[in-house]
Amino acid sequence: MPLDYWAYLETTRKQKRFDAFILDQGYIPEDLDPEKVSLRTRLTDKIWMPLPFLSAAMRSVTDSKMAIALALEGGLGVLPRSLPIEKQVDELKLVKRYKAGFVYNLFVVKPSDEIGSIGWRYSLYPVTEDGKSNGKLIGIITDKMFNPLKERSLKVKDRMLSIENVISAGEGISLEEANDRLINSKIGMLPIVDKDSYLKCGVFHSDLKKVMEHPSMFVSEDKRLMCGGAVSIWKDFERANALINSGVDAIVIDCAHGYSERMEKTIPELKGLIKKSGREIPIIAGNIINEEGFHRLAKAGADCVKVGQGSGEACETHDAVATGSEQATALIKCVYERNRFKKDTGKYIPICSDGGCHNHRDIIIALVLGADTIMMGGYFAGLEESAAEKMYIRLSELYSKSSLPEEISDLPYLVSKYYGEASVEALEKGGDSCRYVEKRKNFVIEGKLVHKPVLGSLRDRFYRKNNGDIPKIKKAICEQGCLTIEEFHTKAKINLRV
């Protein structure tokens, strides 16, 4: 990002949104093609993501379903801290269980179970002697091994494939070798057992399909999907420990006003907890909107700083407490400070732009202004995988009745109920409001309810034929003569529209 835009904003003090900017023409080499563009980016100085997207830590946006869908495409879901600790951890475990490779803590059945009592949430179950996930494997049963109309009262042992006829593998087998053996098993699962035949984990044919369909999955070293979890700044150590012990990959200190002494103390406190666990987990801290805020959080040890206040679609902080910033202005200020911090210390602290991105155009401008990653709520809330409650409303409730033909104004339209974490709707859902204040009595409404049209699946929005957001973003980067987001930060030409 050219520094003259920083100088312009300093001189005029005019706040700018993303729609105030437009890309100039860049020179395109003959051999450059949008398909060659990589959206790989830094979540932290050590962790790279295939796509630069995080889903917001909001109850109407992110649960395990959204986190799984986003990680499969290369992004990161952040589970909200407004959930009870047990619920947040349960959602995290669902994501971590959904592993691209070896699956642990398998759902199993006992040989004495009635076939009809199993429930058949899955099409295949390992059978262990005691019905425990780490029990001795004695067989496998699938939903193709019995007549569902006549044999539901039979025992599992009456229809299962016994261990003598099951192809299995021992501990220590590589994923590549396990996949080769899985194909030969012809039942959709390869059990991994120890020397005494006790079940350790499994490899599933469905995971092979996932790898083929999702080549850019965001996974950890052990091939599990990556997932983040949010905590508050109010000594939220029980929650943090629960997330750390359950395999969280990033901790997001979720605070609407992160420019505070408590935030500066929370970062090293959480670093200490993580160190005691023996794990390496990055801390994403925010939110801040100016140079001093970025500097304080970077100096306190944040691995990534989240920028933005009041620019979200379901946020009313600008009006409620007259505080915040238009997102482009906040991003320019913080990127300037990030680059200065890098020059002074040698350490690069990535920036996550949080808020103000409603579509692919906003995303493009956020990236060119210097964002490494982008957190979005409303963008994801209108998708099938979102945690938002879905409901039908009349078209006239969604759009101005005067702009609609009379014959369709009363037609039902599927929408998501997307609400801010400081809204009336959030309070009615219960949970914790500590994103904003320590004491509930000090809480004020800073959010609202927005009905978001349901636009289809996440993958469809990303890759819809001729109209997907990912191809549009790649084309914009390509037309600046760039192949990566890093090049886009420094080489792209950008102008003010207004």
Please explain how this structure is put together.
The protein is α/β, with parallel strands linked by helices and 498 residues long. It has 2 domains: 376 residues, Alpha-Beta Barrel (TIM Barrel), CATH 3.20.20; 107 residues, CBS-domain, CATH 3.10.580. 32% of the residues lie in helices and 18% in strands. The chain is built from 18 helices and 22 strands. The strands form 6 sheets. An 8-stranded parallel β-barrel has the order 4-5-13-14-15-16-17-18, surrounded by 7 helices. Strands 6-12-11-10 form a 4-stranded mixed beta sheet. β14, α8 and β15 form a beta-alpha-beta unit. The longest helix has 19 residues. It is globular and about 75 Å long.
Number of domains: 2
Write the CATH homologous superfamily of the largest domain.
Aldolase class I
The CATH topology name of the largest domain reads TIM Barrel
CATH architecture tag of the largest domain: Alpha-Beta Barrel
CATH class of the largest domain: Alpha Beta
Overall residue-averaged pLDDT value: 90
